[in-house]
Fold Putative redox protein, regulator of disulfide bond formation.
Amino acid sequence: MEQHAMIAEEALLINGLDVTAARNTIAAIQADKSLARFQFRARNTWISGGENRSTIRDFYGVGREDDSRTMTFEFTNGEPAVLLGDNEGANPVEFLLHALAGCVTTTFVLHAMARGIHIRDLSTELAGDIDLQGLLGIDESVPPGYEQIRIRMHVEADCSEKDLEDLMTYAQQHSPVCNTVCRPVPVVIERAKG
Amino acid sequence: MEQHAMIAEEALLINGLDVTAARNTIAAIQADKSLARFQFRARNTWISGGENRSTIRDFYGVGREDDSRTMTFEFTNGEPAVLLGDNEGANPVEFLLHALAGCVTTTFVLHAMARGIHIRDLSTELAGDIDLQGLLGIDESVPPGYEQIRIRMHVEADCSEKDLEDLMTYAQQHSPVCNTVCRPVPVVIERAKG
């Protein structure tokens, strides 16, 4: 009996994701689309020069404020010497690459699970080109952001090459960070009162 | 003599940034615009489910490969329970907010220095709204990324309110991460060979 229970439990995990929980979440959202509305947050404090630190903990989703986190995440932005810093941390444009890598990966793994595809190995290398004349205001015709970001994906899975290509395209189209980068997303900055 | 030297050295720092180094960098780029071309990089490895880890170290800029970093930065993406994870780390869309907060802050501080404005205090709160029907492929008309990101900035500095407003607008327009989010930036994904 115990052995059967273990086999049944293992069968519900694909790529480390709980298939039943995923199905339940999707069914719940289909029944009440407002459950899909999330708000993520970060608070950041400037330290000195190019050094600043964010704390991340609370968010809203599935119709309520989350209370699952027992600790606050902290991340420090810094800059290398050539950008007037002391390598206090990775810099913001590097953190953007980390966010993009993780999001494309998780979206890929999630939809692989939905298709019953088992992934053995998945890694990415990202490179983004940027011309700092934009940031520095030297040439106003140069966009300050990335010109382009390239992702090289290494993946091994129990499916055909065509299935992998389809999944890669689908992950690119459905990744929240990738979509935030590819599509113009409004950023509104306002002064805090008082 | 020693006291004078110390005073002179302190006078060259505004907001923790070395004014002379900044001027020299800008002069060097104006003389040779290719020095402003940077390439930032990240490598990411999937662990399981929504957990994956990036390493960040090398980059290209100012005409050469950087060798200033004595350690590799590592960051772990995770997901909360409602997104099928175990809070192994902040999630990718939260890391994006950290990147955006840091970039707007550093751009603000940098251009404050260029204008001779001394900042006493600077912090931000970010909130981004997202409808996960996009990620989950439940409704293809819903964009998977952020709908909008709002930044509330608290700032104290030795300048007028109008100067602060001007600086806030300038920072928004010249921040590389903010510009990458606001403007459509192409992301190219390709399979690694072999």
Remarks:
- Chain B touches chain A through 129 residues (CB under 8 Å).
- Residues 1-36 of chain B form one domain.
